[in-house]
């Protein structure tokens, strides 16, 4: 047996520790599992065209994400049920992120209050689902602003929740009070109040910006024309995402969507991010070259939280950064902002 990369050991180690339904929930994709299954391979399908004889003695991975300084362009995606991975849930996740001087997205379904998150001092962005009863959304936004959220991430790929065919959803039977929806405002809400709004249009971007005074990032865009609509409506950022293959199954891999989106909004000042299947430094290098300012990781952060709590999350981020640093030297570039699309190609797809 050869030496196994630590990141590659995480999922199996997490599966040992987690209740089976939780593991399956974290891991699941929607419907036939096409998108979740091909995400990582789509990144690995790119090939590099490295430059040589460039001075790469000093690599500087630091950047800003909507004004927030980070040590490396690797952030943690919003996800749920952190308290099932670690008793301290989102707080442990935030501490790990903070130790790596990164930033995180926090799900509007989080099991930790925004005030508690704010008290960690770690930069965080609120991920929001706009629900049918806008009073709920308004109060949640206000609480997030109060808790120091630095941006609002509007998830737009979920007018309805993706259909799951495995038994990951049995997890909902295990959820204890306080592990989920810690930020749902008090009230006698009906299922209809809480259902996701399926009548949104780009005006919601301006509404969110006005309500919060924060930059708005639209998550779940896979097309250049949609990215342009978001830019025109005042978005500050886009996350190219297919929700980790949990929404419309068969949606194109983000590795394929990113170049079109980056090109569509080039010159607008809008920041482009990407997530989905990113597991290695080389995948991050590819994403940055294709126009992403930073990437998000989803499931690997959940595995790392399960296995090693905040120290595990910090190690995941620093290990990925070390891989990125190494591959930057090999491609002949010392800063993320100097990477350009000509550094990657897909010969076997042309
Ligand atoms: C998610 N994701 C997600 N996205 C979002 O906008 N709001 C949410 O509440 C959640 N919840 C959630 C739960 C779990 C268990 C997972 C795995 C994912 C999607 C997430 O933000 C991100 O888009 C993907 O996870 C990225 O893909 P990878 O890195 O997991 O392959």
From TrEMBL:
It holds the Pfam family FMN_dh. FMN binds at residues 107, 127, 155, 219, 241, 275-279, 298-299. Keywords: Flavoprotein, FMN, Oxidoreductase. Residues 1-349 form the FMN hydroxy acid dehydrogenase domain. GO terms for molecular function: FMN binding; oxidoreductase activity. It comes from the Bacteria. CDD domains: alpha_hydroxyacid_oxid_FMN. The active site is at 243 (proton acceptor). Glyoxylate binds at residues 25, 129, 243, 246. Its cofactor is FMN. Belongs to the FMN-dependent alpha-hydroxy acid dehydrogenase family. This is 4-hydroxymandelate oxidase. It comes from Kribbella kalugense.
């Amino acid at each position: 047996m050869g030496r196994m990369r630590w990141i590659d050991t995480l999922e199996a180690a997490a599966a040992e520790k987690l209740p089976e339904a939780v593991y399956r929930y974290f891991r699941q994709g929607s419907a036939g599992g096409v998108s979740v299954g091909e995400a990582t391979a789509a990144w690995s399908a790119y090939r590099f065209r490295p430059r040589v004889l460039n001075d790469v003695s000093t690599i500087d991975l630091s950047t800003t994400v909507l004004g927030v300084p980070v040590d490396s362009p690797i952030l943690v995606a919003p996800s749920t049920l952190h308290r099932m991975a670690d008793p301290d849930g989102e707080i442990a996740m935030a501490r790990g992120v903070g130790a790596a001087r990164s930033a995180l997205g926090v799900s509007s379904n989080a099991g930790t209050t925004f005030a508690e998150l704010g008290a960690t001092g770690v930069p965080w962005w609120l991920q929001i689902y706009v629900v049918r009863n806008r009073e709920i959304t308004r109060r949640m936004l206000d609480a997030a602003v109060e808790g120091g959220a630095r941006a609002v991430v509007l998830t737009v790929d979920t007018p309805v929740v993706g259909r799951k065919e495995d038994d990951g959803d049995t997890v909902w039977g295990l959820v204890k009070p306080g592990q989920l929806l810690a930020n749902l405002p008090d009230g006698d809400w009906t299922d209809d109040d809480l259902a996701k709004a399926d009548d949104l249009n780009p005006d919601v971007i301006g509404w969110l910006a006005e309500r919060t005074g924060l930059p708005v990032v639209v998550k779940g865009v896979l097309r250049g024309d949609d990215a342009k609509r978001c830019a025109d409506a005042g978005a500050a950022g886009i996350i190219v995402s297919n929700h980790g293959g949990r929404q419309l199954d068969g949606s194109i891999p983000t590795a394929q969507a990113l170049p079109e989106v980056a090109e569509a909004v080039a010159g607008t000042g809008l920041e482009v991010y990407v997530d989905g299947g990113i597991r290695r430094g080389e995948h991050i290098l590819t994403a940055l070259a294709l126009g992403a300012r930073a990437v998000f990781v989803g499931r690997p952060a959940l595995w790392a939280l399960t296995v090693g709590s905040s120290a595990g999350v910090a190690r995941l981020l620093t290990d990925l950064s070390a891989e990125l640093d190494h591959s930057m030297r090999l491609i002949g570039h010392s800063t993320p902002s100097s990477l350009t699309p000509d550094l990657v190609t897909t010969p076997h797809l042309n």
